[in-house]
Amino acid sequence: VVDGLGVGGAEMLVVTLLKNLEGYNLHLIVLGKPDTLVKEIPASCKVTVLGFKTYRDIPSCALFIRRYIKRNRIQVVHSHLYWSNVTVRLATPRKIPVFNCIQNISSMASYTANRLSLYLERITYRERHHIIAVSKAVLDDFNQWVGLRGPATVLYNIIGDEFFTAEPKQFFTKEKIKLVAVGNLRKQKNYPYLLKAFQSMPPHVSLDIYGIGPLKENIEQEIEARGLNIALRGLQPNMHQVLRQYDAYVMCSTHEGLSLALMEAMSSGLPAFLSDIPVQRESGEDAAEYFDLN
């Protein structure tokens, strides 16, 4: 069960998992709209879309999922993202294992913005629900705000083998340095920080940003007004081929779960320049350069 299938790290992870799980009878329930990645779901997986819109839809969706589990004799339930986790806990009979995957720093992504989300998390979470966190930072945050009551596992995100086929960068052309950033155009990714940095960047350094999102128009206006050497490239398939065209990867997020885009860039051989936040240190360790967001 997943909230939606728009292009994002958690959604890409679900697609990758479904493509690589062999020998299982797979069912995918999408709470919201099917969106971009639905075409990536393998034909062997049965897909159901529920049309979830607000928290008021939780009871009806939970009832549907409970009946679906019984009708299809589901043996294991695995949910991704906040609304799916809450709904699945209410829907799944006690005897069936439930795995709730947490993909982000919940306090910053949900709880502080909407206290109702914290309340729902606490009242639906039980000892029998197995928490899977994509990083230690994510698990520590959940434990601090909600409190672990049962089994929990840190399981780092996976990426496709195709990203490991690139040769690491052997040289750079000082006269033209091409940076790349990958991530949806939303507040968490902190793109205004990069825009401000590029106001004083030498002209031979460029930045291409891959992603879509609600801040697209604002970012475009700032780039044009300031004459910045930055281009928005939208969504591109075959990022394993696109990334190797660049010299280095840059990411200035205020918070992350465990960035798939970062893993893909580093696996493609790109040096990484990252915001100095705990989860980036956990991701890049001593293989990256870190900068202070202040």
Structural write-up:
Helices cover 34% and strands 18% of the residues. The chain is built from eleven helices and twelve strands. The protein has helices at 9-20, 58-71, 82-91, 106-111, 115-124, 136-145, 191-197, 216-226, 239-242, 260-267, 278-284; strands spanning 27-30, 46-49, 77-80, 98-102, 129-133, 152-154, 177-182, 205-210, 230-234, 248-251, 272-275, 289-291. Helix 2 (58-71) crosses helix 3 (82-91) and helix 3 (82-91) runs parallel beside helix 5. It is globular, with a radius of gyration of 20 Å.
List the helices and strands and how they pair.
Layout: H1 9-20, E1 27-30, E2 46-49, H2 58-71, E3 77-80, H3 82-91, E4 98-102, H4 106-111, H5 115-124, E5 129-133, H6 136-145, E6 152-154, E7 177-182, H7 191-197, E8 205-210, H8 216-226, E9 230-234, H9 239-242, E10 248-251, H10 260-267, E11 272-275, H11 278-284, E12 289-291
Parallel strand pairs: 1-2, 3-4, 4-5, 5-6, 7-8, 7-10, 8-9, 10-11, 11-12
Which consecutive residue ranges, at least 5 long each, have pLDDT under 50?
none
- What level of helicity do the residues show? 25-40%
Reported for the largest beta sheet, the result is:
6 strands, parallel
Number of helices, where a helix is a run of at least 4 consecutive DSSP H or I residues:
11
What order do the SSEs take from the amino end to the carboxyl end, as H and E? HEEHEHEHHEHEEHEHEHEHEHE
Strand percent estimate: 15-25%
Task: Tell me the structural class.
Answer: alpha/beta
- Described by its quaternary structure, the protein is single chain
Q: What is Rg?
A: 20 Å
- The order of strands across the largest sheet is 9-8-7-10-11-12
3D shape:
globular
The chain-level mean pLDDT equals 92
β-strand number: 12
Report how far the terminal alpha carbons are from each other. 38 Å
